[in-house]
Amino acid sequence: MSYKLLGKDFTPHDVYAKVTGQAKYAEDFRADGMVFCRMLTSPMPHARVKSIDVTEALKLPGVVGVLLPSEVTPVPAPNPPILTDEPQYVGAPILAVAAVDETTAQDAIDLVRLDLEPLPFVVDPLDSLRPDGPNGRADGNNVGSQFAKPRTLKWTAADFEQAGEGKLPLGKSAEDWSYGDVEAGFAKSKLVYDESFVTASNSHHSMEPRTTFAYWQNGKCFVHGSTQSHSFVVPGLAGFIGIKPTELIYIAEFCGGGFGSKGSAYPTMAIPALLSKKLGKPVMMRVSRAEEYYIGHARNGFQGRVKLGFGADGRLLAADMYIVQDGGAHNGFWDYRNAADALSVVYQPEAMRWRGVPVYTNSPTRSAQRGPGENQIACILEPLMDRAARDLKLDRLEIRRVNAPQTGSKVGNDRRPVTSCYLRDALEKGAARFKWDERRARSGQAKGSKVTGLGIGQAYHPAGFNGFDGLVRITPDGKLHIHTGVGNLGTFSHSGTARIAAEVLKYDWENCIVERGDSRKHLPWNIGQFGSNTSFTMARTNYVAAMDALTKMREIAAKDLGGKPDDYEIDGARIFAKTHPGRHLSYAQVAQRAVQLGGRYSGAELPKDINPMTRESATALAGSGLIGVAKDNLPVGGETAAFACCFVEVEVDLETGQHRVIDILNVGDCGTVIHPMGLTTQLKGGSVQGLSIGTLEHIILDPQNGIPGHIGLYQAKPATYLDVPPQLNADWVDKPDATSPLGTKGIGEPPLGAAASAVICAISDALGGYVFNRTPVKLDMVLNVATKRPMSHGPLQVNTQ
Q1: Same domain, residue pair 422 and 556
Q2: CATH code: domain of residue 271
Q3: What is the per-residue pLDDT for 801?
């Protein structure tokens, strides 16, 4: 279908500010009388604070106050606290000191006398599962995650003995599910693999640390923060501060990256607000790069085991997967569950069993990171698909075609259908553009010490929700104001999804104003910008709000010009009678009449089912024009899902272990394209981050003392321009999702997993098909394979360099 705005490039309104340096982030704001605060963080991986003496710190000239753990809003364990007297990882915030400048505040921190009692700690989840292993929490619970109740779970010595060296024990699980006859599937398989694996944790690497600025005015708390969401942040942040959401003004017009770690409110955001309330002064808390590695969250790591059974044609007949998740010190995300869903949908096994154990460790909090679970497991499963193709003498593209899902294919243990899937189309399109059939001849070719390798990767992620609100307004000057609670995570989805409303009302984009980034602009209740959901979820909310506005426009026209509402059509500037186009009202006139008519037309009367946040916003706007407001009650009928595939060519130097990416193509299955330029950037960004996670990034924790060795960009090693090819290629399958009003759905997550797994497959190809069963694939690992030496780490060892 041809659209006026969708599928067309545009310049989002905030681009100019970003490229000229005029964009104001949280740390760019100032206020009269403001002070700066610094955190005192734990030097130990697990300890109990016996006493705190701030006497000397408070005597230092320029120091204005401190904030102690006893003075902050309590957060129910095992969620991350704001400040704590039982730090559970190195870098956990214990207290904060405020002073006239940061130097003085830091000097005061050094004067605080802190008496800590060391407690047992653990950085390897398998150690905590041993019969007498240490627990990461003093309450005795060693297992739990978000929405998984904390508990104590230990495996037996026999579990470890039966597994044997290098194999994950299959002890009691915390969660499990299955479908089909798994053992029968393995029995009829021509080929069966049983592999243990490790996927490393890695930091989020947000370029803007989580700086926060806060002050109080007229009974309300004003907070400037760094979050990738907006409306979704408000209730949680208000809770941390201890106030009602209506008492919070949240400003976050720009965000320098989040990748999942800033999708909702995080505890340290409350520190400046609570200090400001105590001191009666505005408080700025800037966060350093090193501190960001402590409190900035990280991806969950896996130690796992997967058994796969293939038929002679390459069809996956049975799968059995067990995942032990490193969930960090507090409630980690449910990556271990998502990994199971990914296996079930991308490869469509006829029978499958999954078991999982999320373990607490004394390391930074784990939260969702771009493709949480789905992307880690892609790096393990895709090389095994290549191995099966080689052993069955099949083309590596063909084995993926054989197992690829399609619209209506099932996900997870409840076998819910996907509402659309064009992964096979993406594979076909990618193979043709990459010239897979031609390039295959180069696989394994050597030029001196350098060998060519080719790889294909695939990944999936859910891509949408429903049940949130939309709010639009046509003002008496004829302008369309789209009020959106979508945050600015860098994808321009705040404006991309706003164009849905403009499309419905046939507006020229120049006559639209996107109201966002500041709760004083009266924003609706929208879900956070995470999980590849915005292009689906917020397209629906803007659609229903625009349709509500259109319904009211037609009713007003019928009232003023005669006839029935269905007799009228719009053209982007006026509403007119279909049979007599000369009988019309301009959009400005309709808005003026809405104000005169009042009631539901002006926002004086509102739907009963909208969220209180939306109700408050719409009430504040009442009388300013024609108000379109509605909750998304449209049907879904399954899981909205995004898919991507990636093709990579690498050159591996067998003498140095280094690899160079020669070419990369990432292809997305993303529904109707909203913004081609933005989509291209998403796919290319996913490629860069995928190459980084597949071969570079990791977390390092010393098992002797729990001290991290990854608190700088150089140590944690995200990719630079030198690690990626000069040309990044992207493409997509522009086919609509039937449950989205205009066919849109998300794509943010899968390109990362597709690229990460593809580059690992390409490196393996250059090495004759060696399967690493580990991420990241580091230079020394490649060199060990090339020289036929053993790996420098054990098969299940974590926190390796």
Answers
A1: no
A2: 3.90.1170.50
A3: 83
CA distance 74 to 213: 21
Structure tokens at 25: 């982030």
Place of tokens 């109740």: 149
- The pLDDT assigned to 283 comes to 98
**Res 382: pLDDT:** 98
The residue segments making up the domain with residue 471 are: 467-631
* 39's tokens: 């955190």
Q: Which positions ≥6 away from 64 have C-beta within 8 Å?
A: 35, 98, 99, 100, 279, 281
Query: pLDDT tens digit string along 249-271?
Result: 999 999 999 999 999 999 999 99
The pair of three-digit structure tokens given for residue 386, joined into one six-digit string? 């290549």
Q: Are residues 729 and 755 in the same domain?
A: yes
pTM: 0.97
Contacts of 5 (CB under 8 A, 6+ apart): 499, 502, 503, 509
- The token pair at 72 is 């902050």
Cross-strand partners of 495: none
Could you give the CA distance from residue 764 to residue 777 in angstroms, rounded to a whole number? 10
Name the strands in the sheet holding 729-733, side by side, starting at the edge strand that comes first in the sequence: 446-447, 450-462, 641-653, 659-669, 729-733
Residue 552 and residue 626 in contact, taking contact as beta carbons nearer than 8 Å: yes
CA distance 794 to 792: 7
- Provide the token pair at 653: 């130097």
Whether residue 583 lies inside any domain: the answer is yes
Q: Establish if 793 belongs to a structural domain.
A: no
Distance between CA atoms of residues 663 and 325, nearest Å? 33
Q: Is 667 helix (H, G, I), strand (E, B) or coil?
A: strand
Please list the ranges in the chain whose pLDDT falls under 70. none
Helix axes 270-279, 233-241, angle to 10 degrees: 40
Cβ 421 vs Cβ 643: under 8 Å: yes
pLDDT of residue 633: 98
Phi, psi of 539 (to 5 degrees): -65, -40
CATH code assigned at 601: 3.30.365.10
Q: Is the residue at 242 inside a domain?
A: yes
What is the structure's pLDDT at 503? Answer: 98
- Please give the structure tokens belonging to residue 788: 């036929």
HEC string of 415-428 equals CEEECCCCHHHHHH
**Are 438 and 327 contained in the same domain?**
yes
Q: Which residues pair with 473 in a beta bridge?
A: 481, 627
pLDDT (0 to 100) of residue 419: 98
Q: What's the pLDDT at 462? A: 97
At 97-117, the pLDDT tens digits run 999 999 999 999 999 999 999
> Tokens 């010393």 map to which residue?
702
Q: Which residues, in sequence order, are bridge partners of residue 408?
A: none
The reply to whether 132 falls in a domain is: no
- Element holding 336 (H helix, E strand): helix 335-346
Q: Which of 295, 324, 342 finishes a domain?
A: 295
For the chain, the residue count is 801
201: closest CA among 290, 337, 326?
A: 326
Q: Are residues 217 and 85 in the same domain?
A: yes
Given this model, what pLDDT does residue 714 score?
86
Question: 620, 627, 563: which is closest to 598 by C-alpha?
Answer: 627
Same domain? 271 vs 396:
no
What six digits make up the tokens of 730? 């992207």
Are 770 and 735 contained in the same domain? yes
Determine the longest span between alpha carbons in the chain, in angstroms.
86
In Å, what is the CA distance from 505 to each residue of 2, 468, 583, 707?
15, 20, 19, 57
Same-domain check for residues 549 and 643: no
d(CA 603, CA 620): 9
DSSP 347: S
704 in the same domain as 721: yes
Please state, in angstroms and rounded to a whole number, the distance separating the CA atoms of residues 570 and 503.
11
Q: How many domains does the chain have?
A: 3
Domain-ending residue, one of 631, 656, 691: 631
358/212 Cα distance (integer angstroms):
31
Distances (CA, A) of 74 to 245, 264, 323, 480: 17, 18, 32, 43
End-to-end CA, the chain: 51
